[in-house]
Amino acid sequence: MYAKDDPRSSLATATGTATAPRPDAGDAIAAAQYFDFRTLAAPDAATPEGRTAVVRAQNAVLVHTEARTGDELDNGTLDGELAVVVTDDSPAFSVHTDDGETRVEEAGLVVVPPGASRITVHGDGPLVRLIEAGEPAWRERAVNAGAYAEDHPRVALLRRWPEPVGKRAVRFYPLSEVPDEPGRFGRIFRTRAFMVNFLPPQDGPRDPRRLSPHTHDDFEQLSLAMRGTYVHHIRTPWLNDSTGWREDEHVRLGSPSLAIIPPPTVHTSAAEDPGVNQLIDIFSPPRADFSAKPGWVLNADDYPMP
């Protein structure tokens, strides 16, 4: 599946649970889903709601907002943590909770504890929020809510990982404090419900001779393109029921966009733009195989494994 110099070549089987279904287990394989945020929201809308697109996966809701100075983004009162994915193109913003205010001015991952919170925006640019799909007010807003009217049988349901260490607080993990390290795959952070991997920006197209088609047994992959253009290559395994067979997909998406890749499809994504391409991979719950690799999860001291 992986080239020998790919850090993932040393991973254990990519499964989130000990009872993952086999590809031939009989349950139908879900279709991949693709979302171009430029068509799901109005970038010139007067309100942040009009510039916001909401989509969901089995366990996570992703909220993409083209934010502007002065926007107030109300997250509501959440039962679980909120994560904010911040890129180099994101604006500065402040997170307000009952415990005070936290200002963020650079790329990284913000984790907000459960409860009421809101965000005040101090510039223009994209902000991405991750919310557990168990939050009804958010999952019902998703444009693809109907795709999850019933749980997908091949996807392991979210069981939150242990509480973070230390007192309740907004936590910020800046990318500027993470130097490149040979043998580590991307820059990975986890929360109780999410794992976010900031992959290295790709300058120019990916070498077509060095792709990495692979599968996951029981979890979805959310591939979030924030810069450039990607082609998502998806192959659905053949089951005994041929009415569920699908042609191979080679879907080209600009940015910002999202591909939701179901198990156990064979998949790989290739950067295509001649400039900078940036992809961020998101998983819910956190991946056990990535977590088992020493040094890969950069905030593991804050968020222990089960």
At a glance:
This protein has one domain: Jelly Rolls. The chain has three helices and 20 strands.
Topology:
Blueprint: E1 33-36, H1 37-40, E2 52-56, E3 60-67, E4 72-78, E5 82-86, E6 93-97, E7 100-104, E8 108-112, E9 115-121, E10 125-132, H2 136-139, E11 171-174, E12 187-190, E13 195-198, E14 202-203, E15 221-227, E16 230-235, E17 249-253, E18 257-261, E19 266-271, E20 276-283, H3 288-291
Antiparallel strand pairs: 1-18, 2-3, 3-10, 4-9, 5-8, 5-10, 6-7, 6-9, 8-11, 12-13, 13-20, 14-20, 15-18, 15-20, 16-17, 16-19
Word description of this protein:
The chain has three helices and 20 strands. The chain has 306 residues and is mainly beta. The chain has one domain: Jelly Rolls. The strands form four sheets. Strands 1, 12, 13, 14, 15, 18 and 20 form a seven-stranded antiparallel sheet that branches. It has a six-stranded antiparallel sheet with strand order 2-3-10-5-8-11, with no helix packed on it. A hairpin with a 3-residue loop joins β2 and β3. It is globular. It starts with 32 loop residues before the first strand and ends in a 15-residue tail after the last helix.
Features:
6-stranded antiparallel beta sheet; 306 residues; mainly beta; 20 strands; 3 helices; 7-stranded antiparallel beta sheet; Jelly Rolls
What would CATH call the class?
Answer: Mainly Beta
Which stretches are low in confidence, meaning pLDDT under 50 for 5 or more residues running? none
Query: What overall geometry do the principal axes of the alpha carbons give?
Result: globular
- The named CATH superfamily: Jelly Rolls
